[in-house]
Amino acid sequence: MWKEFKAFINQGGVFQTAVGLILALAFKPIVDSVVGDVVLPIVGRIFNAPDFSSLKINLGGKETEIAGQKVQAAIAYGNLIDVIISFVIIAFVLFLLVKAYNKATGYKEPEAETGPTEIELLTEIRDSLASR
């Protein structure tokens, strides 16, 4: 069983994946700080709202008291806006990092295999049918 476990760990880059996950978890606070402390205030200034998390649509009705706080039914869409902005920023930064890494290492996209053209395929089918 121990040998099987060692073979499992050593195959498929499990160790590299673990290192990548640990680095990603360590990198998360940096990204959160950039997004929350730098980008969102700029976006908030553009839209005259320093924080989108307070944006909501009240659905009306009476207020209910839950755990000592008065609550009214509402759709809180502001936090969703914050999360979407964070996601787009993180995705863009990762895109730039991958692009820079590929440029630094000289990585080139493998060219797709070019198969036979439509005319070549039709000619082959015709010849196959003619030989019958």
Description:
It is a single chain. This protein has 132 residues and is mainly alpha-helical. The protein has a single domain, classed as Orthogonal Bundle (Non-ribosomal Peptide Synthetase Peptidyl Carrier Protein, Chain A), CATH 1.10.1200. It contains four helices and four strands, in the order ααββββαα. A hairpin with a 2-residue loop joins strand 2 and strand 3. Helix 2 crosses helix 3. The radius of gyration is 27 Å and the shape is extended. The mean pLDDT is 81.
Quote the CATH topology.
Non-ribosomal Peptide Synthetase Peptidyl Carrier Protein, Chain A
* Most strands sheet: 2 strands, antiparallel
Radius of gyration equals: 27 Å
Low-confidence stretches: none
Output the CATH homologous superfamily. Large-conductance mechanosensitive channel, MscL, domain 1
What is the name of the CATH architecture?
Answer: Orthogonal Bundle
H/E series, N to C? HHEEEEHH
Mean pLDDT: 81
Proportion in β-strands: 5-15%
The overall number of domains is 1
- Count of alpha and pi helical runs: 4
